[in-house]
Specification:
mainly alpha; 74% helix; 0% strand; disordered C terminus; AA-permease/SLC12A_dom; APC_superfamily
Length: 488
């Protein structure tokens, strides 16, 4: 919905997003699906065990606790900020329009990076699945392009269609991991169930830093709950509940599943097993404890897990594009909403075209779809979203200092400051361990990390340009509606 320079909302002039469409579970499905739990566990957790030892489950718990602390201030602010700009709106209210514009560009790059790179993973995951099931090979590029079309269609349809689809896919991918857990628990693991993973001598080891870096990356995108505020039922309650539900579920589920994988092999044997065949760790475990048919099913569900993640990020990107188009920062055409589906379909089409360009460019260059398309495009996206979390944590106490409110000091000051310190440490861990993520050279990793401050600086320069040449757009950027002021 357009806004005036004073921050007041104008009357609707065309189709709008479907308000009241999403409940707590629907929003949580979007967020948890974006994290792709099955893909994270089967594809990344074995590396966490290999590098961090049997204390790896605690790394996921620590990451979950940190992001829960962040959510305390973040959700408190969500009750007062009613716009559709999510991160950039929050950062603007606390740190000003310049920082908000930098955050807006960083959010676009971050979410696009997290989504577009995954088309490389879709191609390789499908290749692996087809080879595992039939013994034949297929090219990755047609699979990735077909995925682009499928995800574009999902974003074109209504948001409740996407929520229902993601709900089904999420239940399926978590269900196969629960099936593995049941098999391991019933059999008592390789040598009986052990809690050694939670003993301090196994947690506080040199590899803990790497485990924490992997763990924080596994939560990327959980904060996107606020993006769906305009489509949520009773957003003041629904959005915070969905945020806590998503981060709580991910933290506990990740830790539990990694512990289960350790029990499947035994405390003394699992690191060697992860080193021998990290990609096959979970498949071998489920074959042993459940059956070969379950391993085949897991292969298929990894593909659907990737598709669910793509659709969740695609929907988030579309709503960022819609909000920025309504503000006048992006072309006005991107603000069009489908008259029947209530979806930001033009923004979705633009995002799909961008994805196709990037995928085809990497293919034309002969790049590896996993080692380069996925990891090189995902990495700046992941770093960008972590930087936005940090900026949002800093913005919370500054925002509450300026408004009248009835929130407690724990939510508005203590928790955000603690979260800022913890997120700074987390971001530092990830940056200093980029080589473990990308497998690339120091030069490549430096460029990937440098993209984040470069994009933020570009946003600052854009804000300066708009303030001088288009002051009306600058003034209404993330403008505070009258309802927000009243809420304070």
């Amino acid at each position: 919905m357009p806004v005036t320079s004073s921050g007041e909302r104008l009357a609707d002039t065309g189709p709008a997003l479907r308000t009241g469409s999403l409940g707590t579970a629907d929003i949580a499905f979007f967020v948890v699906s974006a994290a792709a739990p099955l893909t994270v566990m089967a594809g990344v957790a074995p590396l966490a065990v290999l590098l961090g030892g049997i204390g790896a489950p605690v790394g996921y718990l620590l990451a979950g606790v940190t992001l829960t602390v962040f959510a305390v201030g973040f959700t408190a602010m969500s009750r007062h900020v009613r716009g559709g700009g999510a991160f950039y709106a929050y950062i603007t209210r606390g740190l000003g329009r310049g920082a908000g514009m930098g955050a807006a560009l960083l959010a676009l790059v971050g979410y696009n990076g997290m989504e577009i790179g995954v088309y490389g993973l879709l191609g390789t995951a499908t290749q692996d699945t087809v080879h595992a099931l039939t013994g034949t090979g297929i090219p990755w590029l047609p699979v990735s392009l077909a995925g682009l079309l499928l995800i574009g269609y999902g974003g074109y349809r209504s948001i409740d269609f996407g929520a229902k689809l993601l709900g089904v896919l999420l239940v399926a991918e978590t269900g196969i991991l629960v099936l593995l857990a049941a098999g391991v628990l019933i059999e008592g693991g390789a040598h009986g169930l052990s809690l050694a993973s939670f003993a301090p001598e196994h947690v506080f080891v040199p590899g803990l830093a790497v485990v924490l870096a992997f763990a924080f990356a596994a939560f990327t995108g959980f904060e996107s709950t606020v993006i769906y505020r305009r489509e949520a039922r009773d957003p003041a309650r629904t959005v915070p509940r969905a945020t806590y539900a998503a981060v709580g579920f991910l933290g506990l589920f990740y830790a539990f599943v990694v512990w289960i994988a350790i029990q499947a092999y035994g405390d003394a044997e699992v690191v060697a097993a992860a080193g021998g065949d990290p990609a096959g760790l979970f498949f071998a475990a489920i074959t042993t404890y459940v059956g070969a048919w379950a391993a085949d099913l897991m292969h298929v569900l990894i593909v659907t897990s990737v598709l669910a993640s793509l659709l969740a990020f695609h929907n988030a990107i579309n709503r960022y594009g819609l909000a920025l188009a309504e503000e006048g920062v992006l072309p006005k055409a991107l603000a069009r909403v489908h008259p029947r589906h209530g979806s930001p379909y033009v923004a979705g089409l633009a995002q799909s075209v961008l994805g196709a360009i990037v995928v085809l460019a990497f293919a034309a260059a002969g790049a590896d779809p996993y080692g380069q398309l996925l990891l090189w495009v995902n990495t700046p996206g992941m770093l960008g979203l972590m930087a936005l979390q940090l900026l949002a944590a800093v913005a919370v106490p500054l925002y509450f200092r300026r408004i009248r409110h009835q929130e407690g000091v724990l939510r508005t000051l203590v928790a955000p400051l603690v979260a800022a310190v913890l997120l700074t440490a987390a971001l530092g861990l990830v940056v200093t361990h980029l080589a473990e993520f990308t497998g690339a050279s120091t030069t490549v990793n430096t460029v990937l990390a440098a993209l984040v401050p470069a994009v933020f600086l570009a946003g600052l320069l854009l804000a300066r340009r708009l303030r001088r040449r288009r002051p009306d757009v600058y003034q209404r950027f993330a403008a505070e509606p009258a309802a927000d002021a009243d809420a304070g």
